[in-house]
Amino acid sequence: MPGEGVAMTAEHTGGIDVKCNKCGATSTMAWQPGAACPECASTEVEPVTKIDVGGGPAMPPVQAAPQGQRQNPLVAVILVTVIVVALGFFIKNLLPEKTVRHDVFWLCEDCAAEFPGKPAVGPVECVACAGQAVRLLKYECLEHDHVFNALLIKPEAESYAKYLKKMEELTAADAHSDDARRPMAPMMGPDMYTTLYSLPDGEWSEGYPKEICCPQGNCDKKKLRYFRPQ
User: What pTM value is reported for the model?
Assistant: First the structure.
């Protein structure tokens, strides 16, 4: 019956949008279940749910964080950097350390001194007597567990001198050439001069030895291993 609904005031609840299902009137009023429509006094009154542009219920506004709680972008960048650096050090410590050695052995033809040094064609100056030292290959015998002098290597003097002279001429020509398409001087290589080989206490020859054996007679290649300076 009209007038039988509960009369609501602002003391009960705040004003909200409502719609009467009987007369269709909408209004803003203080509402609670049982409130009467101000137009037809019907109690078939329901709140109106607002829909936002996206089609979902209206969301409450997002409140900004207090000034003291706002995050500084610089702090985040520093934090990420520290994490990445720490992770890099951690991974590096997990990996095995690789030590690359490029040193080789040299043997002086004058005083027989042996010493390690940087790779070169040779001969190089002896550190003991300033004589001429040639490349020395050492092998480790896995069968008898010892290291021995296996092979001596040096360039043949005449062919190597011609090679060096040719290298100087090509390098000089490259330096004064305006043609960018001109090839650079060739790199040094054993195929551009004659290389001589000799077993310990043997004769120098151009051919690489067919067989290398340890002093105790092991000639098995699978049991001989190249030995680098420690």
Answer: 0.50
